[in-house]
Design brief:
Strand order of the largest sheet: 1-2-3-13-5-15-4
Order of helices and strands: EEHEHEEEHHEHEEEEHEEEEEH
Number of domains: 1
Distance between the termini: 34 Å
């Protein structure tokens, strides 16, 4: 990519705690050092940033992502787009998001942080909208730093020292022979993370409580664990910590996977509209707790770069 003169970056906040729209940037071109610094600063401050009307193709999406880090394999469990190992297809009816006959729906159902079952969850995700319904199919993000700060002082002191087990597990409510379950069985991932992580760049404390993948708290009985987690999950998705994004074709969402959780509401399945997005994630590091203890792998390998993953697959 050739660096060309581009205008000054404009950052337009969307809510008090999370989300900003970035203007004055053309992501089809390499960003200048000044632009990279401005975008990176907005990313760290606002947790998720949005770029309108970019219309990148796969190659441009990969090139844009490489300016901010090393892309992982598309998805550690669910594969990648043919010819582009860095890209994961987020299609309406993708295998990883099958429609189930029976589900337990709670206020936090579906909220998640990407690939927290790995010992080193991606540090960031970059999602590109291609086929977008005229209405419906929005995405929400919540600020897990603000959620932590919103806890009472005694509760913060309590959760600061806890650890949680994150895993991809076969789903009991899925249909028999579910492709989701079969893929999870082939590449199991399970890790222990601090429930409160210290952000590697900002030093902020993060309530690292991904509802979809955080299965239990270490050292508690199943009922104790479930009740504590329900309190935290309900708190983490309070509306004042969130932003809702209405997609248009060509839009980009770029979020800090270390300090947010996100949700794709299931309203899209109640419509006949199609929805196609593509995601790239960037290689992350194990988390570190308030006590300095890092994340610990229980099962499975770390999330590796796309290049390294392909080399390992070729050697097997």
């Amino acid at each position: 990519m050739v660096v060309a003169h581009q205008p000054t970056v404009e950052v337009v906040p969307l809510t008090l705690h999370i989300g900003a729209e970035i203007r004055g940037v053309d992501l089809t071109r390499a960003l200048s050092p000044e632009q990279l610094e401005a975008v990176r600063g907005a990313f760290l401050k606002w947790k998720v940033i949005f770029f309108r009307d970019q219309n990148l193709d796969h190659a441009q999406h990969v090139a844009m992502a490489r300016q901010f880090g090393e892309p992982t394999i598309g998805h550690a469990v669910f594969g990648h787009v043919d010819g582009y190992p860095e890209i994961y297809s987020v299609a309406k009816n993708r295998t990883a998001n099958e429609k189930y006959d029976a589900m337990t729906v709670t206020p936090w159902f579906g909220w998640h942080t990407d690939v927290t079952a790995a010992v080193n969850p991606p540090c960031a995700s970059i999602l590109r909208g291609v086929t977008i319904p005229p209405y419906g199919g929005d995405t929400f993000w919540t600020n897990l730093v603000a959620a932590y700060l919103g806890l009472s002082e005694p509760m913060r002191a309590f959760v600061d020292r806890l650890r949680g087990i994150h895993a991809f597990e076969p789903r009991g409510d899925a249909k028999e022979g579910s492709a989701y379950n079969e893929r999870v069985k082939r590449r199991a991932l399970k890790s222990e993370h601090p429930l409160v992580a210290v952000h590697a760049e900002t030093g902020e404390r993060v309530l690292f409580a991904s509802p979809s993948f955080l299965k239990s708290l270490v050292g508690f009985t199943p009922r104790e664990s479930a009740k504590i987690l329900e309190i935290l999950w309900e708190h983490a998705v309070r509306p004042e910590y969130t932003v809702r994004f209405k997609w248009n074709p060509g839009d980009i969402a770029f979020w800090d996977n270390r300090s947010t959780a996100h949700l794709a509401p299931r309203d899209i399945f109640q419509s006949d509209f199609d929805r196609q997005l593509y995601r790239i994630t960037l290689v992350g590091e194990p988390l570190v707790g308030v006590d300095g203890r890092p994340s610990k792998s229980i099962e499975g390998l770390p999330v590796r770069s796309a290049a390294e993953e392909l080399r390992m697959m070729a050697a097997e």
